[in-house]
Structure formats: structure tokens, C-alpha cells
Amino acid sequence: MSAAQTLDSFLRSRLLGQDEAIREFSSAVDRAESGPERPGRTRAFVLLLGPTGTGKTEMVKLAARHLYGGDSGRRLERFDMGEYQHRDSVLRLLGAPGQPALLGAAVDRLNALGGGLLLLDEIEKAHPDLLTSLLSFDDARTTMADGKTRDLSRCYVVMTSNLGAAEAAQMAHNGYSAIRRKVVREAETFLRKETVARFSSVVVMNTLTYEVQERIAAGLLERELEVQSEHCRRWIEVADSRVLSFLVGKGFSPDLGARNLRRVVESYVGDALRPFAPRVTAAAASEGDRKRPGLGDRWSHGLVLAVEGDALAAWPLRRSEPLVRLLSAVSD
Fold first, then answer.
1. Which among 76, 140, 170, 305 could disulfide-bond with 64, CB atoms 3.0 to 4.6 Å apart, if both were Cys?
2. Residues 145 and 114 occupy one common structural domain
3. Which residues 6+ apart lie within 8 Å of 177 measured at CB?
4. Where is the AAA+ ATPase domain (predicted)?
5. What H or E segment, with its residue span, contains residue 68?
6. What is the pLDDT of residue 319?
7. All residues at 6 or more sequence positions from 172 whose CB lies less than 8 Å from its CB, including other chains
């Protein structure tokens, strides 16, 4: 099976709570890969909508990784439209007569590799003049302000937007279909209905329920403990399931999704483990050396992370017998 045919299962294994959006996005890619050529059009022109922290950008990054493997870093070009809100920034992106265009150079790089993904994040933040130009990218041949005409026929063009996010966050219990209708309607109001119709696919991310965010937090906590364990050169375990419940309680947000969870996990766990972090003296830093316990110490000394009041705390412990992580109770 081709990478496009297995994209659906690949994304489902890595993005939680987004089965409908994954199905729509994967179908758009598979149609482009296996369907007939459509002269004069980009491979796919996708509008990806949904609340902050639901995985819009992550889905595109994962798709690039799956489709292009080790070359994914070069086959994905991403622009944050929040950086192009002013008129002078439009010239930087689209160029001017005799001046290079950042966006044009990105398309040239993708074409030199045989195509790829062009990701334009949060398009609603772009300057109106820029937004008008970007929304013409359904046409494969685009002339930019630097005077050069570029071919997008080998590129997937994906635009993300948070339009309708606030309304969607209040509709978590209304079902995906109702959320999708509301979010698309908001996009049609802002961009105009006929403009939204130019996209070959409109994909809407679901809001993340408490249960889904709990599963996401479990994964974030496990990865954070791995990073901190390597940093501190000690094994680290959680004392009980209250650690995860505490973090979810602090980080759950219908509005911010997984983005807020990541911040909470990293800050609370990091604060608890900071006293055990290796310190780098000025002399050691100049030599590029870090003062830390030897590798052997890591497996005989550890830390136990537990809830203490309104924070997390860590206590040193010598390993006498294996401890069982309690995160699996949520992920099962």
C-alpha cells in the first residue's frame, strides 16, 4: 500500500480525538495521489479549521513525515501568517519588482524536490491584501509580486484558521456535525462563502473532551519524565494516579486544548524536579561540560513525583524494587 493509503491509520495512532478530521484530510491526500491529474490546479487546496491546540499544524507535520519520510524536513514549508499582518510584511512574503519573494523561494525549493506541502498557518491574521493573494492558490500557476510565475501543481497547499474556535469550544457536547456546521459558517462569514468553495477540501478539527485531554496528558507526562530523567540522570516515577489527575485539573481547557496541557505538564513537573537538575558552573559551561552524577548513579538513585498541596514535589529514592507506572490505567 502507498503512503497516502496508510496515512489515515498513521494519523489515528498519533492524534487523539480527531477521527472525523483525519478521515477527511487523509481522503483529500489519497484522492490527489491516486486520482486523475487536474491541469491548472494544485494537488490539493485544503482549509483546516478548528480551535487552538486541537492538532491542526501537527496533523500537517505528521502527514509530511509519513508521505516523505526522512526528507519531510525539506518537503514542508511553513509560514505563520501572524508575522504578516502589516503591509510592509506583504512585500517580504510576496516580493516586489526586482525583490525576492520568501513565499516564491519556498515554492521553488519544493518544486526542486518534486513537490511537497506548503502550510500557511492562521490565515485570518494575514493582511487583507495578502489574504486575497493566498486565496488564489487553487490555481496552480501563480504570478507573485516579484514578477515570476510559479507552478504549484506538485504542491499540497494547506491553510489553517482558528475561525469559529470560541463558538466550537462551547459546543463540546453538541456532536461533531453541529460543531462542523458552526465552524464552516464562521469561515464563510469571514472569508465569504464563494471563497471557501474554492478549497478542494474543508476539514474541521473536533474539540477535545476531558477524556481525550486526559489521554493526551498521560502521553505528555510520560514523555516529560523521559526528558527529565535524561537531564537529571535519575530514573523518575510517579507516586500514584493523583499526579495525572492533578495535571489534567490544572491544564484542561476547552478553548486551548493540548497546548495548555503541554505548558502545565512542563512547568509543574519542571518546578518539582528543578532542585535535582544538574548545575552548570561558568567554568564548566566554557568547557562544554555539565556537572552531573555518573551514568551508574542513574539506575541506583531515583525520584518519585507526587502531589503536595497545590503543586508537585519530588523525593529522592534508592531503587530497591521496580515501581509500576500508573499512567497505563488511563491509556488502556
1. 76
2. yes
3. none
4. 42-209
5. helix 56-68
6. 54
7. 207, 209, 254
